[in-house]
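Hi support team,

I've been running sequence recovery on a batch of backbones for a student project. Most finish fine, but this one hangs at about 90% for roughly twenty minutes before it completes. I'm not sure whether the input is malformed or the queue is just slow. I've pasted the structure tokens below so you can try to reproduce it. Let me know if you need the job ID as well.

Thanks,
M.K.
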């Protein structure tokens, strides 16, 4: 099977005329500030808008040249776009049309930028995060989105809002995109980017994922530490005072035999676990019969900025409806980036970076896994070590992907799929490919993160070491 994939890949790539000579260079964004920084972000509107952000974006210069960006501090295209996006979501002169999936995919060959969100997000919440007082009908036409396309070519500007394979195009020739176009041309002229290629066009698959097939350098080497492990009792007391807004004299403290610390005030509990997590619990005083997503998100952002501290690079990854004690609420999952690159946590017990249960104005629970960048080798690249390309990672693990595909399609015999067609079926089952860091979560200090290619495949998450292709994480 692997040999068939290699042949398929080589035949597809031989038609390409562009020679990849660009070097990988990931620029380091502002460092995440410490949990105990006295100057916490106080504006909830800023925190909310900062948390709802894309995890990557695609720059389409023309039909041949494309690149994918994870760190917006490198080019600032998301920050530059937000004003125009707020305008198109509030304009009363918008013309809205429905696009077929094929039409939308063809637009990837035009000069444009596409912002991809980690999960679907509410269009209404996006407008509230940007303080749009009177959003237009886009909110009703496309209630949820997972990507936004902005056309930057010649002619009238337009936007495409997407959810899955549903797309709407929105036109308003009064929206000024000149600044975005200038930035796009500047990036294209410098040519200091990695070339990415569409799997649909190069391999004939049914997906439209963009991946590189040549990378000459590597990402910065990152080491992280557990913030909780280094806290003394005085620092824990200070945090307890912040969470409860009370003097430590009124808070009951307990130290467990394993070293975990518990603080109790009335019905509220704060715990510093030995595994490096902070947990907070506050029982509901009365039932919440009707949940409000915006009110709950605003409460979460206020809590994070006033009590917990906001990490630069943290972003909202998932929103789930929950029921508890006859009440309706939401569970918010937050993940984070280090130097612009998303981080996957390998500790199954911890699960995610931040999880919160919120019932409108009430924070019922909060769990935070406190990891920080030790900045041991800031802004440096590992010398004499190059990453595998995404194509190489797929090639090395094609047999595993095929095995998983056949297992998940037991009702289809290999003979029915067809040996000549199975490669296409397997590759078309790839839902996304993303560059990330993997945190094994085994050490309190000096934990070296592993650079990985993360492949979403048939509902699974597979993380492969970007230097040797070995599977290091699966869920």
């Amino acid at each position: 099977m692997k040999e068939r994939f290699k042949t398929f890949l080589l035949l597809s790539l031989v038609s390409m005329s562009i020679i990849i000579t660009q070097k990988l260079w990931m620029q380091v964004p502002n460092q995440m500030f410490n949990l105990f920084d006295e100057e916490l972000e106080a504006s909830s509107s800023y925190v909310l808008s900062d948390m709802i952000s894309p995890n990557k974006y695609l720059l389409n210069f023309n039909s041949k040249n494309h690149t994918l960006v994870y760190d917006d501090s490198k080019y600032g295209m998301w920050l530059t776009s937000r004003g125009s996006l707020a305008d198109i979501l509030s304009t009363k002169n918008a013309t809205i049309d429905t696009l077929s999936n094929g039409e939308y995919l063809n637009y990837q060959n035009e000069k444009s930028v596409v912002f991809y969100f980690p999960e679907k997000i509410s269009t209404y919440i996006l407008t509230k995060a940007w303080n749009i007082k009177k959003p237009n009908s886009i909110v009703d036409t496309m209630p949820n989105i997972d990507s936004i396309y902005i056309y930057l070519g010649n002619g009238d500007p337009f936007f495409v809002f997407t959810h899955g394979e549903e797309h709407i195009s929105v036109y308003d020739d009064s929206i000024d995109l000149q600044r975005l176009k200038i930035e796009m041309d500047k990036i294209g002229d410098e040519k200091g980017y990695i070339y990415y290629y569409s799997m649909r066009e190069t391999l004939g698959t049914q997906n439209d994922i963009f991946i590189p097939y040549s990378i000459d350098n590597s990402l910065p080497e990152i080491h992280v530490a557990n913030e909780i492990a280094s806290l003394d009792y005085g620092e824990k007391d200070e945090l307890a005072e912040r969470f409860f807004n009370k003097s430590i004299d009124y808070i009951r403290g307990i130290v467990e035999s394993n070293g975990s610390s518990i603080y109790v005030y009335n019905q509220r509990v704060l715990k510093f676990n030995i595994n490096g997590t902070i947990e907070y619990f506050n029982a509901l005083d009365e039932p919440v019969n009707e949940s409000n997503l915006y009110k709950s998100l605003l409460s979460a952002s206020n809590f994070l900025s006033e009590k917990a501290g906001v990490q630069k690079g943290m972003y909202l990854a998932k929103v789930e409806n929950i029921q508890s004690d006859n009440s309706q609420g939401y569970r918010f999952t937050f993940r984070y980036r280090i130097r612009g690159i998303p981080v996957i946590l390998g500790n199954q017990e911890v699960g995610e970076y931040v999880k919160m249960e919120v019932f409108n104005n009430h924070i019922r629970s909060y769990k935070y896994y406190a990891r920080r960048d030790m900045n041991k080798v800031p802004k440096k690249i590992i010398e004499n070590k190059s990453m595998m390309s995404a194509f190489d990672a797929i090639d090395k693990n094609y047999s595993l992907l095929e095995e998983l595909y056949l297992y998940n399609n037991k009702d289809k015999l290999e003979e029915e799929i067809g040996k000549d067609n199975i490669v296409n079926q397997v590759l078309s089952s790839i839902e996304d490919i993303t560059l990330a860091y993997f945190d094994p979560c085994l050490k309190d200090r000096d934990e070296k993160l592993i650079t990985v290619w993360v492949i979403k495949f048939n509902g699974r998450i597979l993380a492969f070491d970007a230097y040797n292709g070995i599977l290091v994480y699966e869920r």
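--
Follow-up from support: It reproduced on our side and the slowdown came from queue contention, not your input. The CA atoms of residues 54 and 117 lie 4 Å apart. No action needed from you.
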